């Protein structure tokens, strides 16, 4: 972000701009997290109890919760979630029957099965097409109130969690420009979305080897790459080579899985999306944090949306 963009964000969303500036420092993250936890301690205990009392209704009730949290804390990523087939089908149906928006641009709506004509209309390949107002899909709404997801969010964030947004998008097998690959997070990076936050990811299509896997570096949350001067604090994009040289090969996880597979990741870890070779990937992301800056929401006034 250049200096004038920083000033603009500072004016329009001062809480977010301040957080972006200071949450890169681990001590700040830890002080804000523990202060918020202490201030909401009773509400936090009540929240956990409510989740536990409702756990029998969770679609993830058989997942080992202490292990899931332990993995997430230690590695920045935890595996083992599987959505019921009926939930996958309902989300897929929503996607098939709603417009997606090229480059997340509210003026560039199209039905995903018409991607060829949409690309001809805008004169470039569409790497990412995102749905808006995902909460109008009942299956997504139900998922967000799932007691397991909420329990994990509370324990990981150490206070009553704030749901800050869901995002459902297609990543397509195209030869995208470097600019689009950068814009759509297909270069390694770390997210600084709050003082403490994390995301659940669910594949809604099968994701095979080389077909748009989400890639994350296990354990990088506590060990950011220190390659150039100031990198410990710097937030930037990294080349593949910088990352493969810096981390052991076995920690660079290319996450594949059938439709329905899900995992949690604190995306302060080094991660990126990859471009599929032949089959598009549909992914649902659900984010929880301490505070909501209104940045991650997919909500748009329907009157502001238009088709291409
Ligand atoms: O498309 C992906 O797998 C990466 C997305 C990403 O960077 C994120 O959700 O923070
Ligand atoms: Fe990211």
Structural class: alpha+beta
**CATH class designation:** Mainly Beta
Q: Can you identify the CATH superfamily?
A: q2cbj1_9rhob like domain
What level of helicity do the residues show? 25-40%
Low-confidence stretches: none
Average pLDDT, to the nearest integer? 95
Could you explain how this protein is built, in words?
- There is one protein chain.
- The chain is 35% helix and 19% strand.
- With 308 residues, the protein is an alpha+beta fold.
- It has one domain (3-304): q2cbj1_9rhob like domain (Jelly Rolls, Sandwich).
- It has an eight-stranded antiparallel β-sheet with strand order 1-9-6-11-5-4-2-3. The chain has a three-stranded antiparallel β-sheet with strand order 8-7-10, with no helix packed on it.
- A hairpin with a 6-residue loop joins strand 2 (100-102) and strand 3 (109-110).
- Helix 1 crosses helix 2 and helix 4 (41-53) packs antiparallel against helix 9 (147-157).
- It binds 2-oxoglutaric acid and fe (ii) ion.
- Residues 185, 189, 191, 267, 271 line the site of fe (ii) ion.
- The site of 2-oxoglutaric acid has 10 residues, from strand 10.
């Amino acid at each position: 972000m250049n200096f004038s963009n920083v000033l603009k964000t500072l004016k329009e969303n001062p809480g977010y701009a301040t957080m972006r500036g200071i949450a890169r420092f681990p001590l700040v993250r830890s002080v804000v997290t523990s202060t918020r936890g202490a201030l909401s301690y009773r509400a936090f205990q009540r929240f956990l109890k409510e989740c536990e009392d409702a756990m029998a209704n969770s679609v993830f009730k058989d997942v080992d919760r202490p292990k899931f949290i332990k993995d997430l804390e230690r590695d920045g990523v935890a595996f083992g979630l599987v959505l019921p087939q009926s939930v996958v089908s309902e989300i897929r149906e929503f996607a098939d029957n709603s417009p997606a928006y090229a480059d997340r641009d509210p003026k560039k709506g199209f039905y995903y099965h018409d991607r060829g004509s949409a690309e001809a209309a805008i004169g470039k390949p569409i790497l990412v097409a995102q749905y808006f107002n995902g909460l109008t899909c009942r299956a997504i709404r139900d998922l967000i109130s799932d007691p397991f997801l909420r329990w994990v969010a509370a324990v990981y964030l150490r206070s009553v969690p704030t749901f800050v947004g869901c995002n459902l998008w297609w990543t397509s097998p195209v030869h995208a420009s470097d600019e689009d690959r950068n814009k759509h997070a297909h270069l390694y990076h770390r997210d600084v979305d709050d003082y403490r936050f994390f995301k659940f990811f669910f594949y809604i299509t099968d994701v095979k080897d080389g077909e748009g896997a989400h890639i994350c570096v296990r354990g990088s949350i506590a060990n950011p790459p220190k390659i150039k001067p100031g990198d410990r604090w710097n937030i930037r994009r990294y080349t593949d080579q910088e990352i493969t040289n810096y981390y052991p090969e076995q920690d660079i996880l290319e996450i594949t899985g059938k439709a329905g597979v899900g995992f949690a990741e604190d995306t302060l870890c080094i991660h990126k999306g990859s471009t599929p070779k032949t089959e598009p990937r549909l992914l649902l992301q659900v984010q929880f944090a301490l505070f909501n800056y209104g940045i991650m929401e997919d909500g748009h006034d329907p009157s502001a949306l238009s088709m291409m």
